[in-house]
Amino acid sequence: MTNKLYWESFRTFFKIGMFTLGGGYAMIPIIEEEVVNRHKWVNKEEMLDLIAIAQSCPGVFAINISIFIGYKLNKVRGAVATALGTALPSFLIILAIAMFFHQAEDNRVIAAMFRGIRPAVVALIAVPTFNMAKSARLNWFTAWIPIVSALLIWLMGVSPIWIIIAAGIGGFLWGKLRELRVES
Question: Structure pTM?
Answer without folding.
Answer: 0.62
